[in-house]
Amino acid sequence: MIYLLVILFLIGAAEISARLLYSKKHGLKFIPKRIGEYPYNRFVEECGPPLYWRLKPGQGEQEVHINSLGLRSPERRQGCRHLWVVGESDLFGAKLIHEEKIWFKALQGHLDRAGYDIQVMNASVIGYNSHQAMAAVTQLPIEKDDLILLRPNVNDISIAYMHGSDWEPATPWPMAFIHKLERHKPWVFKLADMSCLGMGLRRRFFKESNITSAFTPKPGFQLEPVVAHQKECLGQMIEFARSKGATVGFFDLGFSYEPEIRPGDRAKLSSIQGNWESLVSGWAHYQFQSMDAIVKQLAEPAGLPVLKVSSHIWQHPDRYHLFLDLVHFNEHGHAVFAQALYDELVASRLLNKGN
């Protein structure tokens, strides 16, 4: 018995030491991450172009439920206005453990409590580029007085960066990439990651597979053709929504990193994702450049409001504890994003437009 107590004491002391070192290195306290492992291959099905893949309508798997429109969203109600939000994997809710904590349910709660008869519809499909999103959005049952929020597609940037000078508009992610999204971490690794000591030992002695390792960037990336393609696709979505009598707005990118990384942020970003620097110094800064270009070339000339959710996230006191990786929110992050989007919608008066 005494030996067991000694062992437990030593493990406890080692855990305390690991947390102190973690705090010193990252400037943050250690909080374990709980990452959902989705059975993507059960609710994602291949189809022909222009979509290439889609979410299976009516499919319900563990913590992922797809409605009859093929969206991770509630069933569309009749007799009310709808707020359609078109994002990507971050707003699809990738890696989220509990679906009841997803952002669109939190936003719906804010709208309900404020007395708005508006239903939130999540039109974000994991992995879609601008062309796929445009093809999907222009098939949605958008009606008069609905709202639709758009933003430049960051998958376009990543895909074009990978293809370099070989990139062509509408190029999707390879299906092999989509299939590899379904990963399962051994239970012993999950258990280890619940402690700071265990996580450190796992990262030191065991290397996880990287699903992007097969996609080596090629030289020759150019931002201008990508922005032109984004502008064309967004323009078609705007035209479609307006033809239905809907109101259109934009929202910006609310990721863990900013366009300019301050020295004090570097250690904190490394607590979110170890290889953050190679990604942010690669294609990530082009994401903000494309956002700025679309605002200047499309949103402002068309008189479309731009909801700046990023400022709410970057100024949040728990900013670096809102993410599971560089772009995907944890439960707390989904709640913060929902509050930010609600505040921006109220400030922009978009909720007051329509009947």
Task: Characterise the protein shown here.
This protein has 355 residues and is α/β, with parallel strands linked by helices. It has two domains: 1-30; 73-183 and 215-352, 3-Layer(aba) Sandwich (Rossmann fold), CATH 3.40.50. The protein contains 14 helices and nine strands. Strands 6-5-7-8-9 form a five-stranded parallel beta sheet. Helix 4 packs across helix 14 (331-348), helix 6 (154-163) crosses helix 12 and helix 10 (223-243) packs across helix 12 (276-299). The longest helix is centred in the first third of the chain and has 25 residues, at 2-26.
Please give the largest β-sheet. Answer: 5 strands, parallel
Shape label: globular
* CATH T-level topology of the largest domain: Rossmann fold
Report helical residue fraction. 40-55%
Q: Percent of residues in beta strands?
A: 5-15%
Structural classification: alpha/beta
Short description:
The chain has 355 residues and is α/β, with parallel strands linked by helices. The chain has helices spanning 2-26, 40-43, 89-92, 103-113, 130-137, 154-163, 175-179, 187-192, 196-205, 223-243, 263-272, 276-299, 309-314, 331-348; strands at 44-46, 53-55, 60-61, 64-65, 81-85, 118-122, 147-150, 247-251, 306-307.
